[in-house]
Amino acid sequence: MSFTGPVWTDKARKMRILDPLGTEATINRLQGRLLFPVLSNAITHRLRYLSYWAWVAKHADEYTQANRALYEKIYLFANVAHDCSGNGTEGKGIVNASRTIGDDVEIADLYQSTGEVIDISSDHFTLTNGQSGFDQYYKGLLYNLLLFENEDTLSPLGHSLADAFDEAVAVAFEDIKTAVNEESVSTTLVERFGTDGCLCRISSRERTLLAKAHLGLTNRATSWDELAFMDDTAGVTISISQYLTQDKHTTAQEITDTESKYELDDEVELTDLEAYMAGGQDVFARSSLLVLLLTLDQVVTAPSEEPQFGSLADTRELWRFVIYSEYFSDAYETLLIALYQALAATGPAEGETIVQRLTTHEAFAESVSLALTGVEIKASDKDPDRLKQLKWSIYYGTAWRNSPELRLNDRSPSELVDPDRQSWQELRAHIVNSHSGFRLEPPSEWTFRKLIERSLETAPSIDRSARLCAYASLLLATLQGRYDHYFSQDMFAPHRRWFLETQRPPSARQLWAFPYNEEESFRTVVQEITRQSVLEGYLERLYTKLGDTLGKSPQLVSIDADGTLAYERSFNNDQPNLPTLKYDRTADLLYELGWISTDSLSEASITERGQNVIAHFLNTE
Predict the structure, then answer these.
(1) Beta bridge partners of 379
(2) Beta carbons within 8 Å of 304's beta carbon, 6+ residues apart
(3) Left, alpha or beta for 517 (phi > 0: left; psi -120 to 50: alpha)?
(4) Which of 202, 335, 367, 373 is a Cys-bridge partner for 415, taking CB atoms 3.0 to 4.6 Å apart?
(5) What is the pLDDT of residues 230-242, one digit of tens each?
(6) Which helix (H) or strand (E) holds 106?
(7) pLDDT at 256
(8) Residues of 296-330 as b/e, b for ≥16 C-beta within 10 angstroms?
């Protein structure tokens, strides 16, 4: 076969490598729907930034991008000047405070308590692209939480938050505005503002309002002027079932139909706020945060073989799709790494040749046998990583009390697997029939992912690439088996539809309508996946991106006019892009709300306040 594409007279410049196969798009989209108002992946999420920007938007006469950058600088220095306790999030989230300017001077160093005035003009220094934290990072959050109607208009919810910040700080806004107008701020004002305006000094009233905003505890009005925080939350739903099965046309009719007889036009368009309420985005975010809290509490207090999710069961199933998609992305990216490392180890070759070299190497067959018959899991004495436990509990329905440890048998595998004589279908059936249901035991996604991890710790070689190819392919077979025996059940039809509406190819959906002949040998199917879905898929994505923009194209291999491939550079330090699960970033939020004990989900436990939140909603459903 041949690989076709443009023939360059001169090589394009190196570009930033982002998601080389496009497999991470589905994960991000799924999480975007489940935690729509919450995620901020670019920075450490600090709650009080939201209060500060609501305060500025309420009082500022001129609310331009240039002015917002000046307001950001004043708040930055107020936080630098404050002597935080050092607990939890501390000084994280100060936008660009550590960026180096001039002669290795950090922006934070521009504050000197011995000086009298700090120049905050753009001529002296700028933040990222001359913008503010609002424009770069927080604007979307403020919109998604319904605190801002548009860039300079607060909703009633935003006004409430601005008032709470006003009550908490002693500095008058007029003093801050004067400093912005003069483009300089006194150290005296900075220190006064930092005393009660620092990120770490969030008031109880602000925290309460922001908890309500993140949990969607507002009336379900579809007019911005009518929005209000709820005081009585006893009847708030946490069930997303109606939003999995609803007909969008009917929902639009319900929203737009008033007391008058109104016939819905097929082309009716909902406003952003109407669509938000119709799609239940507030309910998705609320139930997702509660799933994370509930699961973490079960992991810490009493790891269970059968954790109870109750009315959060539907949300838990959607989070399974997130983890399922992560494993799929792991497998594809591992195959890509195996390919370009094999090119690096053996030299230029045609695509067909390098794929054959990987899958016919003796280490490929050995690794298939080892992974299926030669591993076991034992509990180690190490303290468990609670983020991983949380993931396992959601996906497998159990979490080990201690960290699981994968052990390899010293002897040869008890049963040799012949990837030429046994079909893809047979090996998939072997994996599925090894145990019933979702289990965190061999063979499982965790097993194959751990074997990949161990292989990646060894020196690159054709042998290692062959092993990676074997383990990643078994991971794909396992995921296909999960669908066949679990996700394909009739009871999960609404969850599948939600997934299919959200996913973007290439995604795990490819395993549901498998484009390859499953009755062919395991080796043959692996060759076809590696060649067509991974290598050709990568090259197609590369050329598409080269045509669109030079900014974000992954250039891992080059190709000559005759189809010969050569290694260029690695992706993500030769590791699949983990963690792709962004819900780890919710730890900042959960900690500042007082629901978990630390700002890391890997170490956190649920606080009494967090347990009260769980009990309140689970008991009032």
Answers:
(1) 404
(2) 298, 393, 398, 399
(3) beta
(4) 373
(5) 998 888 999 999 9
(6) strand 105-106
(7) 38
(8) bbbbbeebeeebebebbebbbbbbbbbbbbbbbbb
